[in-house]
Amino acid sequence: MANLTNAFGSLSVIIPVYNAEREVEKTLDEVQAYLESTGLPHEILVVADGNTDRTADLVRRRGRGVQLLCNEQNRGKGFSVRRGMLASKMDWALFMDVDHSTRIENLDAFATHADNADVIIASRRVAGARIVREQHRIRQALGKTFPYLVRALVLPEISDTQCGFKLFRRSAVEKIFPAQTVERFAFDVELLLLARAHNLRISEVPIDWDNPTSSTLRIGRDATRMLLDVMKLFWQFRIRGVHPKPRP
Questions:
Q1: What is the pLDDT of residue 204?
Q2: Which residues fall within 8 angstroms of residue 46, CB to CB, at 6 or more apart?
Q3: Which of 40, 140, 234, 242 is the most exposed place for a label (fewest CB within 10 A)?
């Protein structure tokens, strides 16, 4: 196990959740057990995104230092990640998926990149990555088409923009997240475009990824919105050369 305290100093973990009562307690158990075993100073922020099940109640009753932020209505994963990042306080801040498809133990591999990166992202498409369980064929098709579109239009150097496990140095958090505007599933693309606009160093690290069986992505509506958001970002960053200004 890598010495995470030497690599990161301290860590905030942001977990956006939407109707995740089946996964949230198990994932928090695993994340807290791992972080406590490393001795890394940390905080965990769960952002409940207008849930209609018991997710927020389970986190609230849990205690154990886990902070709960609640959106009054469903705003999207991007909005929830932004809210958690701007509320975080540690030297580095990680957001991860509540299904634990990319396990917290990947921080060991991330630690070797900390000295030379401002943003470290998990990738399912670089050499050394492994897919533990394949997605449904429709999701596989989207998973191949969307990265191709992103590389062709805005981020040719990034193999995988959508893996839900990304780590940001505190200075990167302060530059990127106040300017984030995309609130739903294409927000990762905007984060990386903002990082590039600020000349931040991005490292892409191979991981083992276990296909989630409870994804909240709705193929028809959300895939269309993702494509529209990418086209908007293409127009904004590549055609007009205008970058979002910090929001209040």
A1: 97
A2: 15, 16, 17, 24, 28, 59, 66, 67, 68, 69
A3: 242
